[in-house]
Design goal:
By secondary structure, the protein is of the alpha/beta class. It is 37% helix and 15% strand. The chain folds into two domains: 8-133 and 288-307, Rossmann fold; 134-283, Rossmann fold (3-Layer(aba) Sandwich). The protein is built from twelve helices and nine strands.
Length: 308
């Protein structure tokens, strides 16, 4: 098993499958009266979050606690970071406290890679700028496999704001490794021109959502990240929803078995309508549930729980 999880590219097919299989075993813990395993007792996991987060931070905290690890939640707000402390000095502080794993979310792309050079423990990338979010890709893959029974050969459309999406990048890398065919869909302004060659040569790009929908097994809608947009990437929210939003009529163009995904949080009414988000095809709530099991598996394998 690898020491750090910084990118979807860190995972080959065997390692990714091991994580998914372990997550399936961890999922059985959720059905127990006492949702605890002693696997990481005595280990310390630090959640180091420089950006606001609800799902990811709570998911990692729940995962670590279910494995009986000690958890320290560090938020940039109210810490020495607001006084100008550097990431390196914060890392050295965590190192001195004996952190076995650091789960980091940071607005700067590449920050987790730097952190991995400064601490002895494992580093897990929980989202760095517009770069990557590998555990989100793992939980998405787990959800697809649980719903559809396989990953190899699936046709997956990733739709929307690819330019600013770390989820999209990690999913392209992981799903391509696991044998799925990925098509990126969105307005030309929100799909980087070199993304196919830079990430995975086998992926396709389309600017026409309606033409793609009838042939996919999975449609993954991405949040439009307006907080990262300094310029106008499309005429209006209404125009974006008309061209690239997933509504009821578009959902009914999907094959009968196809599922709808969204990493959250959602802009309801923009990239996805309530009718679709709350439909039986939607896996959005399942993705949150599966996230805890997948992150349990990641922490367990990274910290050598199987050797304890």
């Amino acid at each position: 098993m690898i020491k750090h999880l910084l990118s979807g590219a860190d995972l080959d097919a065997d390692t990714a499958t091991e994580i998914l299989d372990t997550a399936a075993e961890m999922a059985t813990v959720a059905g127990r009266e006492i949702k605890k395993l002693p696997a990481l007792r005595g280990r310390t996991v630090v959640n180091l979050f420089y950006e606001d987060s609800t799902r990811t931070r709570i998911s990692f905290e729940a995962a670590a606690k279910r494995l009986s690890a000690d958890v320290i939640n560090f938020s940039a707000k109210g810490s020495s970071v607001t006084k100008g402390e550097s990431l390196k000095d914060t890392a050295l502080t965590l190192q001195a406290m004996g952190a076995d794993a650091v789960v980091v979310r940071h607005p700067a792309s590449g920050a987790p890679h730097r952190l991995a050079n400064w601490v002895d423990g494992s580093v897990v990338n929980a989202g760095d700028g517009t770069h990557e979010h590998p555990t989100q890709a793992l939980l998405d893959a787990y959800t697809m496999r649980a719903r559809l029974g396989r990953l190899a050969g699936l046709s997956v459309a990733v739709v929307g704001d690819v330019l600013h999406s770390r989820v999209a990048r990690s999913n392209v890398l992981l799903l391509s490794t696991l044998g799925a065919k990925v098509t990126l869909v969105g307005p030309p302004t929100l799909i980087p021109v070199d993304i196919a060659g830079a990430l995975a040569p086998a992926i396709d790009v389309s600017y026409d959502l309606d033409s793609v929908l009838p042939g996919v097994d999975v449609v993954m809608m991405l949040r439009v990240q307006r907080e990262r947009m300094n310029d106008s990437y499309f005429p209006s929210a209404r125009e974006y929803a008309r061209r690239y939003g997933l509504d009821g009529p578009r959902m009914r163009r999907l094959p009968e078995h196809a599922i709808v995904m969204h990493p959250g949080p959602m802009n309801r009414g923009m990239e996805i309508t309530p009718e679709v988000a709350d439909s039986p095809r939607s896996t959005i709530v399942e993705q949150v549930t599966n996230g805890v099991s997948v992150r349990m598996a990641v922490l367990y394998l990274l910290l050598g729980g199987n050797n304890r």
